[in-house]
Structures are given as C-alpha cells and as structure tokens.
Specification:
Helix content: 40-55%
Distance between the termini: 18 Å
CATH class of the largest domain: Alpha Beta
CATH topology of the largest domain: Rossmann fold
Largest sheet: 7 strands, mixed
Strand order of the largest sheet: 1-10-9-8-11-3-2
Number of helices: 16
Order of helices and strands: EHHEHEHEHEHEHEHHEHEHHEHHHEH
Shape: globular
Length: 377
C-alpha cells in the first residue's frame, strides 16, 4: 500500500466556502430541464456501442483516508473516445442536425470536446471544422482529423481559437457546436450538458443503496460540473456536498463565486490540466453553480503526474486505472483535504462518507500520458 504521509506534500492552493450556498433542485431544473436530461439518456443509451462506464471503488485509498467508500467514474471507457465529452458534443450534433441534414458543424476545442463533435459529425455524415489553439498537441489534432474533421490550428490560447471559430462560422454559415454558452447562444450548450448528465443516471444505477455524501467536480468553463449538479437534482434523493476543483492558474469558478458575478481570469501560465485551463465560466453552468456549489478548491500542477501513476499502478484500487491529466484533480483534492484536519472537519469527511470522483478521461493523448506517468517526483 502506498504511504500517503505528510512528507508526500499533497498540495492545494486555495480552499473557499461559498457564502451564498443554497441547493435548490427546482431552480436548477428550471435551467437544465428534466425533459432535456431524460431525452438525452433516452437517445444516447440507444447509440451503437453504448454501455455504462465503470464505477470503480478506490478501496485502498478509502482505508488510508478512513473514508467509507470512494467511487471513481471511469470515463476512459466511454465509447472509443476515452472521455465523458463523447456524451456531449456528439449528442448536440445529433440534435441540431435533425432539422437540417446538410449542415457543416464547427467548434473550438482543447481536444476532447472537438473529438466528440467530429465523431458525432462522422456518425451522421456531416462535414466538420475544428479550431484548436497552438497549445493543443498534434496528437490530439490528428485524432480529430482521423475522424474526418478539417482541423485548423490558431495562434494563441483556447479563447483565440473560439474567436476564430465564431468569425469563420458566421462568414461561412457553419453551425457552431460549442460547450460554452454566451448571450444568445444557449440552446446548443444545453444539449451538450444534457448529454453529460447520462453519467449521473448511470451512477445512480451503479451505487446500489449507497448514498453519495460528497462529489468532487472538475471545472473548466463549468459545463460538466453544472451538468452533474443538474443530474443530482434530477436523479438523487439526497443532496451531496458539492466541491469544485480547478487549476490555481485558471480558477474562474472560484473567483466568480467569491465575487458573486462572472469574473474573467487572465491566464498567465497554462496548466497541465489543459481541459480545465479556462479563463471564464460559461453562462448556463454559472447560473447553476453560483449557489449550488458548497466549496471550491484550486490546485497547482505538482501532484498530477504522481496521481496518474498511482491510479495506473493500482495503488488506490484493486485494478489499475488509466487516468488522464484532467481526471486526477478530484483525487488530489480529496487527499489534500483529508490531510488538513480543519478542512476535513469543515467538509464533514469521515468514516461514514461516500465520495464520488469523476475520472473524466483516459489517455486521450497517449504520448502525453506516457510522458507524465514516467516523471519522477
């Protein structure tokens, strides 16, 4: 068993409690409706190759932290795309193409969302344009190209690629399939979020009689986190304690919750957690997250490679888990919280707790994965 002594320095950067916390199921489901959530599951569960992804117990980590159960939703097994994003972009493509089967779809992406949109377009025989920033690896771009998409690399960061996607789409009459909402662009991101809620439907069916007491949710623009909270409102009888986890270089949800309004972050340093390195929370998720999140935690990149390796070599569970760099922040936050008695007590993490973690991706960039797990501490 791996030794999680304090010498291992499981780090967090900042811990914050939301003073405006109020989990209102009706209000949440007014923003992402029961109808949208249920329709997404009804449709996606009929797709060829669909099966629920595993919910793995991190039983060895439970013993070390004195937690009753730790559940890890392993999205590395999601279709052949190795990411929860397969549920969102592809479903949004399906929804918008029902009215027009000759459309060209376009999106900006850090990798996984674009792969889902490209796959969704390929499934339906649609043309697809993908805009990526210069920081997205060639390996990720090549995977999207292999799915039949035209991949356009843009100088600058993710926001630069999104701006270019919007400009080109407006000029060429392409249909934008984005997981980010803004003024007058709400419907498609809602379809994307509705797709993500399939994870919570599966989890409810997998946890047997166990009630989830805590859920750690990674946030970039907040789409997955908002969707999972809507899933909680729709599918769970109880209300778990919700914790948002972000890179300390891009903690846009935490800073927005502090200010009680959307705050844009100027990202000086790109995080290893590339899919979470976002400077501004999306509009629809923000409306859900601002009151329903109990705590926020930000993390440095320090423990990312180590945690990927420990999951992979079965230090935390009876089986090895292939976890990408965006999958491990929940694990790190849980360990760091349990190593700080004040935070552990405040969050009520104890021997009765049943914690849910979202392993949102596998080795979506195989070269990057091998490089990171090979790093020495």
């Amino acid at each position: 068993m791996t030794n999680f002594s304090l010498e291992n320095l499981w780090k967090y950067s900042e811990f914050f409690e939301n003073k405006n916390y109020s989990f209102d199921k009706k209000q949440i489901l007014d923003l992402l409706s029961k109808k949208d959530i249920n329709e997404a599951y009804s449709s996606i569960s009929k797709w060829e190759g669909y099966q629920p992804t595993p919910l793995i117990e991190l039983n060895k980590l439970c013993m070390e932290l004195n937690i009753n159960k730790i559940f890890y939703k392993d999205e590395s097994k999601r279709f052949k795309l190795k990411s929860f994003k397969a549920l969102g972009g592809a479903y949004a493509v399906e929804r918008i193409s029902k009215e027009n089967e000759s459309i060209v779809v376009a999106t900006a992406t850090a990798g996984n969302h674009g792969r889902s949109v490209a796959w969704g377009a390929q499934r339906l025989g649609l043309k697809c344009k993908i805009f990526i920033s210069e920081f997205v690896s060639d390996a990720r771009g090549n995977v999207m190209a292999d799915l039949g998409a035209d991949v356009i690399k843009v100088k600058g960061n993710y926001e630069s690629s999104l701006t270019e996607c919007i400009n080109q789409s407006n000029k060429n009459n392409w249909q934008i399939v984005q997981d980010v909402a803004w003024k007058n662009y709400i419907t498609v991101p809602k379809y994307t979020m509705a797709g993500y809620t399939v994870m919570m439907k599966e989890i409810v069916n997998q946890i047997d009689q166990n009630k989830i007491s805590h859920i750690f949710l990674q946030a970039g623009v907040g789409g997955m986190a908002g969707a999972m909270i809507a899933g909680i409102a729709n599918y769970l009888d109880n209300i778990p304690i919700t914790i948002i986890v972000e890179p300390d270089s891009a903690a846009c949800v935490m800073e927005s919750i502090k200010a009680n309004e959307i705050k844009k972050i100027n990202i000086i340093r790109e995080s290893l957690m590339g899919g979470m390195s976002c400077g501004e929370v999306s509009l629809v998720p923000w409306q859900i997250l601002k009151n329903s999140v109990k705590y926020c935690i930000s993390l440095p990149d320090d423990n990312i490679p180590k945690t990927m390796r420990l999951l992979g070599n079965a230090s935390f569970s009876n089986e090895g888990i292939i976890a990408g760099e965006n999958s491990v922040p929940g694990v790190i936050s849980l360990v760091a919280s349990c190593k700080n008695k004040k935070i552990k007590d405040q969050m009520k993490l104890d021997s009765n707790s049943n914690v849910l973690l979202i392993g949102c991706e596998g080795d979506t960039d195989e070269e990057m994965y091998q490089k990171l797990i090979s790093q020495l501490d």
